[in-house]
């Protein structure tokens, strides 16, 4: 039986893993509550998540807002415009325990990396608002910059090449199931993220020497 290779690198998604992303946090109190509830519904009846996903894939806001207005009307387009212009308000905090986890991984001698589906126009806000996060990461690949998009294999393969790391000795965390499937498809260890405590246990289960924190 082949001995598992030790883990040398850990790759993290951003929104829902490192950062608390809340569309509602940006809009609440600025627009009618019924409209906010509709915009933020899981089935995306107002297309916010679909159009933001297109931005994450590399399309430009200036082009998309014209198309969005044609599809959904001026009122919703003005709210979508507000959302993009005030995107930092949708990022209220790092998720609990994640700063400590990244610090512990680094102290264990492992590489710590970012791989995110995010627009090239708004990604800078993450590091502007959380500069310590940028310092904790050895590097980050951003879908909107590369015009590649999880869960497609090309963006994982690009990240591995750019970071100079090996899939078999790396772990990826994401909160979206299809992105975990995409990571597995290129040979990465990968776990569906729920919280920092579980991510710590997942890494410990692969032999990474991390302290247990309450």
SS summary, helix count: 12
Query: What is the total tally of β strands?
Result: 7
Q: What is the 3D form?
A: globular
Strand content: 5-15%
Order the strands across the largest sheet as they lie in space: 5-4-1-6-7
Q: State the helical fraction.
A: 40-55%
Which spans have pLDDT < 50 for at least 5 consecutive residues?
Answer: none
The succession of helices and strands, N to C, reads EEHHHHHEHEHHEHHEHEH
Largest sheet: 5 strands, parallel
Mean residue pLDDT: 96
- Derived from helix and strand composition plus strand pairing, the structural class reads alpha/beta
Radius of gyration: 18 Å
Taking the alpha carbons of the first and last residues, their distance comes to: 36 Å
Describe, in plain words, how this protein is organized in 3D.
This protein is of the alpha/beta class. It is built from twelve helices and seven strands. The chain has helices at 23-27, 33-39, 48-56, 61-72, 74-85, 98-107, 124-129, 131-136, 143-146, 153-163, 177-185, 196-205; strands at residues 9-12, 19-20, 93-94, 111-116, 140-142, 170-174, 189-192. The strands form two sheets. Strands 5-4-1-6-7 form a five-stranded parallel sheet, with helices on both faces. Helix 11 links the parallel strand 6 (170-174) and strand 7 (189-192). Helix 4 runs antiparallel to helix 5. The longest helix has 12 residues, at 61-72. It is globular, with a radius of gyration of 18 Å. The protein starts with 8 loop residues before the first strand and ends in a 9-residue tail after the last helix. The mean pLDDT is 96.
């Amino acid at each position: 039986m082949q001995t598992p290779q030790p883990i040398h690198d850990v790759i993290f998604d951003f929104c829902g893993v490192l950062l608390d992303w809340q569309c509602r946090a940006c809009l609440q109190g600025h627009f009618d509550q019924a409209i906010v509830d509709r915009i933020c519904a899981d089935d995306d009846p107002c297309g916010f998540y679909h159009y933001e996903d297109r931005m994450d894939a590399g399309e430009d806001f200036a082009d998309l807002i014209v198309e969005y207005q044609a599809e959904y009307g001026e009122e919703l387009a003005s709210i979508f415009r507000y959302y993009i212009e005030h995107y930092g308000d949708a990022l209220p905090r790092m998720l609990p325990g994640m700063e400590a986890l990244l610090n512990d991984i680094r102290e264990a001698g492992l590489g710590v990396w970012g791989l995110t589906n995010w627009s090239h126009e708004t990604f800078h806000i993450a590091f502007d608002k959380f500069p310590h996060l940028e310092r904790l990461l050895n590097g980050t690949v951003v879908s909107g910059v590369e015009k590649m998009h999880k869960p497609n294999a090309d963006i994982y393969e690009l990240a591995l090449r750019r970071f100079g790391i090996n899939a078999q000795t790396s772990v990826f965390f994401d909160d979206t199931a299809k992105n975990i499937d995409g990571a597995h498809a290129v040979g990465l260890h990968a776990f569906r993220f729920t919280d920092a405590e579980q991510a710590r246990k997942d890494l410990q289960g692969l032999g990474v020497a991390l302290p247990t924190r309450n």
